[in-house]
Recover the amino acids of this structure.
DNA sequence: CGTGATCATGACATTGGTGTCGTTCCAACG
DNA sequence: CGTTGGAACGACACCAATGTCATGATCACG
């Protein structure tokens, strides 16, 4: 592995000049630059990231830590956390234009994962944390050491930068659609894991919306874990229920897809049977039959904003913390009982 | 930001001792260890990754560079490269058990992306490259500087470690199923981008399989770019064709889904209409209606092997290069014209 | 009481780049 | 011809760890 010294040596210049050439400083003579570039090319020299990070006090790496749910160790359930994938691409596409790279880590909530994030925090200039990867206290402590932006986490946070999504608005529109347009009166809900603030909020808003409509009941409320399998399990429970709800709203799309598929397998169709809705609007939701009515999250926007905010905070650590709420869009397709649209 | 020096100072020991405590050396007195740990806790000290990287000559970071296709800049086509997402999770899950992290970068093929990979190569201990992100010559040059493992790239490579997938075997089984079990005689193919070795191989094998069966014709061969939109476009072309093929095999699942959806939208159903098959077996393929018959790639295995191989090579750079081919599995579902299975 | 072994510890060199500061050199100008 | 200004460049300190080597302390044993 060649170093600046070697390059400087061969080019007959000092290491400082090599550095200037690499970074395009105009304080170097064209001839000298030429010579240095030739040596760099010849040696295939690439500056060492660690050494650069040390002397510049910035590593040009940001981290993204996210929860991975429902992937069993044996790998039988292939369900990957699709929500996160969308986010990763969004963040990466922002960084692509810069000289900053993205360091990724997933894991199940818990102490080992928190340790991993801590040790990772030494390798990055800043951290994006998605969902509730660690208790708020620890998160704030982390944020005192390095810049942190929370994505889709709790909104009641004044010490931290947060970029979140307006679960409430989307869910309210969806509930109104189910109650007012379809006239459903008995509505079920398939909740997400209790450790997800988003999951909790979605249920709460749905509950309130129903309470505001006399004659409507929320029943049953089932608990899932965001996985497709837990959706399928819920569907089996629902099928046995008397009276069964007319519709079941799910806290995310993967569970909704699980419900949908299981209902079909059991011979119950959506038309005349049970309506299903989701939340997130992942890729598969457009594709499943019937296409899933759901509340869309602005993934790209979420990732973009979070990435930009983090970079801004890395630039200026004294920036006041703020939380940004992005709008959601209720996307009516067919699984709620609406006729399938002719054109997309 | 606190450093070893500060910790050492406060604990009244030398930096060497702090280092020993951090790395769990047993050459340190329990009392001393206790004292040092207390200071570390109090200061929230985390060792700086750059400094560690510099002195250990290893950064404990590996990179993954992959092509991103079909994502337009305006973000209208939300289709993300699902194949890659699966791979990312597989690789990440290997690294999770180690103290190594994953640095990610996507990009469209081209000179800027190659530059980015070069500069990234200074930040990592080794690189996983997926598909044809750069010309073979450059890739080999890169591999001479740092450990590189190619994933799903060209197989005719003796200088480089390669982990690839047996496209041929899966495709042959699929072709045999279409020709022998279903009795199709006029078969179309929707090819992938010409710069993808996998895409080329899939077409070639399909072509040969058909040539071996007298009475069968390969017509038409359309060209797509692995995106769902290009599948939809192909479907419109196919619909106008006389005679139309009985089945169209697609070089990946996303295009197959595009074909499927477009056919349905145009009123042509699969039963009695045109059969469709894919390649990859991504999540959405199980979920789409009718469920897609496809050739499954062992994503997890692919990621696992590649990650392990790279780590092995980082350990010992003199390891002989080898290429590993992983088996594919032809998964018959319903889109080929088979009856939908009662149980999954 | 001396010797050797073992354990705990610290001093210090090393790692590759960056950026500051000072120096050299040349041209232009009075 | 001396002075000045600025461009081009080099020496050097610094960054935060690691790991080697030397050393002091403690103890057992002869």
């Amino acid at each position: 592995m060649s170093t600046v010294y070697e390059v400087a040596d061969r080019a007959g210049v000092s290491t400082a000049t090599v550095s200037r050439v690499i970074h395009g400083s105009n304080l170097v003579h064209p001839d000298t630059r030429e010579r240095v570039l030739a040596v760099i090319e010849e040696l295939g020299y690439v500056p060492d990231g660690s050494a650069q990070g040390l002397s510049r006090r910035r590593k040009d790496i940001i981290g993204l830590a996210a929860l991975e749910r429902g992937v069993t160790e044996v790998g039988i359930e292939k369900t990957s956390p699709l929500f996160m994938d969308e986010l990763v691409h969004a963040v990466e596409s922002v960084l692509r234009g810069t000289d900053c790279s993205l360091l990724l880590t997933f894991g199940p909530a818990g102490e080992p994962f928190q340790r991993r994030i801590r040790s990772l925090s030494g390798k990055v200039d800043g951290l994006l944390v998605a969902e509730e990867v660690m208790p708020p206290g620890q998160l704030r402590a982390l944020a005192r050491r390095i810049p942190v932006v929370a994505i889709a986490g709790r909104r009641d946070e004044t010490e931290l930068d947060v970029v979140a999504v307006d679960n409430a608005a989307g869910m309210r529109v969806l509930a109104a659609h189910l109650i007012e347009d379809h006239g459903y009166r008995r509505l079920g809900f398939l909740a997400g894991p209790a450790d997800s603030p988003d999951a909790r909020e979605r249920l709460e808003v749905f509950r309130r919306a129903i309470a505001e409509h006399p004659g409507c009941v929320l029943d049953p409320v089932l608990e899932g874990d965001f996985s497709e399998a837990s959706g399928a399990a819920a569907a089996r429970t629902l099928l046995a229920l008397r009276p069964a709800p007319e519709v079941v709203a799910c806290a995310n799309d993967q569970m909704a897809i699980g419900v949908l598929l299981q209902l079909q397998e059991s011979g119950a169709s959506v038309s005349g049977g049970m309506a299903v809705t989701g939340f997130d609007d992942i890729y598969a939701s457009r594709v499943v039959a019937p296409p899933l009515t759901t509340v869309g999250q602005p993934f790209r926007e979420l990732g973009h904003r979070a990435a930009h905010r983090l970079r801004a905070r890395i630039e200026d650590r004294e920036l006041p913390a703020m939380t940004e709420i992005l709008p959601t869009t209720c996307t009516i397709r067919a699984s709620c009982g609406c006729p399938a649209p002719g054109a997309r």
Q: What stands out?
A: The radius of gyration of chain A is 25 Å. Residues 299-315 of chain A form the longest helix (17 residues). Residues 3-5, 15-16, 18-19, 23, 47-48, 50-56 of chain A lie near DNA strand C (CB under 10 Å from a C1'). The first strand of chain A starts at residue 61 and ends at 67.
